[in-house]
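stage 2 :: seqdesign
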């Protein structure tokens, strides 16, 4: 009887083991099915995520290209502005040099006029009117007037040159 109980216990254990094996196998199959399902879902989810990332990357590329175009346009405008300013500086420097020369000539002619007038005044004080001194004073005065007129015309030309672009933009 002991052997029979043993066999019965063994049979129960074997049947329990078989039942456990069946349950483990079923659980593993469910896990496998779940993992496969998760893999498909993850792949589908990753595909959507990858597509979203690709779209975002493409949008960033477009934005980057637009920014590069803007930077290029700004750089081109800046270079053009710099060239325009450099040419204006050259023109203004030439005008300043011209005005300086005119001013020096005007100073020189005015100094001559003062000398001539002083000599004429001394001649008149002594009672001797010298026609040559009078003529020289008149010529110097005339030169002074011409130099002043030339300086005024140069200044007027400078003003007109500055106003022309402003008048052209307003029309």
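stage 2 :: out
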């Amino acid at each position: 009887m002991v052997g029979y109980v043993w066999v019965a216990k063994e049979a129960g254990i074997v049947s329990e083991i078989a039942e456990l094996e069946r349950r483990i196998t079923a659980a593993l199959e469910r896990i496998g099915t779940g993992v496969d399902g998760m893999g498909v879902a993850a792949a589908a989810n990753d595909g959507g995520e990858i597509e979203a990332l690709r779209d975002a990357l493409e949008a960033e590329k477009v934005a980057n290209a637009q920014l590069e175009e803007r930077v290029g346009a700004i750089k081109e405008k800046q270079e053009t502005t710099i060239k325009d300013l450099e040419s204006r500086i050259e023109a203004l420097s030439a005008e300043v040099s011209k005005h300086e020369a005119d001013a020096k000539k005007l100073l020189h002619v005015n100094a001559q006029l003062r000398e001539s007038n002083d000599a004429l005044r001394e001649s008149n004080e002594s009672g001797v009117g010298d026609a040559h001194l009078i003529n020289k004073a008149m010529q110097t005065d005339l030169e002074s007037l011409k130099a002043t007129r030339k300086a005024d015309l140069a200044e007027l030309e400078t003003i007109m040159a500055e106003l022309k672009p402003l008048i052209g933009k307003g029309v």
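stage 3 :: structure notes
- Residues 1-8 have pLDDT under 50 and may be disordered.
- The chain has one domain: 2-170.
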